[in-house]
Each structure stands twice: as C-alpha cells, then as structure tokens.
Write the structure tokens for this entry.
Amino acid sequence: MSNFFDKIAPHYDAIPCLLRINYPLVDEMTVKAENHILDVGGGNGRLAHEIVDTTGARVSIIDSSKKMLNQVKDHPRIEVICGSIVKNDFQDCNFDIITCVDTIHHLKNPQAALEEMYRILKPGGKIFIQDFNSLRIRTKLLKLVEKHLLAEPANFYSPKELEEVSKKVGFLGESKSILKIQYLYKGKKYE
C-alpha cells in the first residue's frame, strides 16, 4: 500500500477535492477528551488534527507510508506510527474508537485488518469505516484504475458486504450512504 501513497503524499490533500469526498466524520462520532482513538491509514493526519482540534482526544495514526506520515503536523496529542494494522504491537483492548477512512479497499486482507481492529478496540468501543461503495459506477471505474494502473489491491465492498464481514469478526453495526459514491459503516464491539 505505501508505494502508491509515497508517490502522492505531497499532493494527497487535493484528492478529496477532485473526487468530491469530504465528509464531516467527526460530526458522526461521540468523542470525549479522555478517549484514545486509532486512525487506521490516517496518512497526512487530516482527520487526526480535526479530531484533536474539535474534541481534545488523543489520536494515534498508523499508516504504512512514511512519506504520508511525514506530512503530519507535529501535535502533542497525535502519535504517528509507521506500520501495518495487520502486524502491530498494540495491546488488546487499547482504543476507545477506531477510524478507517478511504483505507479498507487498499488493504491486501481487509478481514485480517478488521480482526486486528476488533482485538485492539475496547469492549463497547466504536469503529467508523468510510469507503467507496462497490455498487456505484464511479467506484467500479476507480477500482479499474487502482487495480490495473496503480497496482493497488482495490478490495472495494458494498455497504452490505462490509456489514457481513464486520459481523463475522464480531462487530455489530450498520452502514449509511454518504457523498453519492461512499458509505459510512458504524460498528461497535460487544463483549
């Protein structure tokens, strides 16, 4: 995943504008200042900074692209970790909330990533996954570009498919359509 993102890191902030995908995810979340949040594939820290600035919570970003992480503005409440969500050193039940925005389709094994997210989320913790709906025509075109031109995994799910995979892992949640070609999955870990 990181090779593609290493190449586009300096220009990444232009992509949401080009694709018209700028959703106010923080408005969907109930975050307390004492929460510890993990932003999976958080790249340049755009969402992490929004969370910290809005709520005062602590955010850890995990991303495999060093060049994307180099774009994160230094902040005492933001921790930057270069690595994989599938192979990480996080303790069990470590985070209150996990976010994963426009990332799940870039992962080689999304189910393994969801299993790790489940493991490191506290009981009662929430997960927010925003991604492109595989049923939309523009997403199908995006999949062709990512898979064949950019050599990305392009593991796009429909909202229902992500709900089913997440349920197998142990999450309970549901999706809603946002931004015409995207959806937001909101799930919870029950134990």
Summary: The beta strands are 36-40, 58-63, 78-82, 95-101, 121-132, 171-178, 182-189. The first strand starts at residue 36 and ends at 40. The domain at 2-189 is CATH 3.40.50.150 (Rossmann fold).
